[in-house]
Amino acid sequence: MPTRSPAEIRLSVEETRKELEYSLNDLQAKVRQITDWRSQLVEHRREAIVGAAVAGFVIGGGVAAVFGLFRRR
Questions:
Q1: C-alpha angle with apex 5: 4 to 7, nearest 5 degrees?
Q2: CB-based burial label for 40 (10 Å; 0-12, 13-18, 19+)
Q3: What are the residue ranges spanned by the domains of the chain?
Q4: What pTM does this model have?
Q5: I need a labelling partner for 64 at 20 to 30 A (CA). Which of 5, 35, 43, 45 fits?
Q6: How many CA atoms lie less than 13 Å away from 4 in the CB half-sphere?
C-alpha cells in the first residue's frame, strides 16, 4: 500500500465526511417521507377506507358473536 501524505489523508477524510453528510441528509429525508402518515393516508385514501370498513365489520361481527354466545346460556 503506497504511503500518502498528510494532506492527501486530510483531503480523503474531508471527502468522506461530505459523502457521509449527504447520505445522512438523504436518509433523513426518506425517513421523514416514509413516516409521514398523513400524506400516506391522503395518497392511499381508498385503501384506508376499505380497511377501516373491513375492520369495523370484523370487530362488529366478533362482538355480536360473543354476545350471542352469552345470550344462549
A1: 125
A2: middle
A3: 1-35, 44-73
A4: 0.52
A5: 45
A6: 9
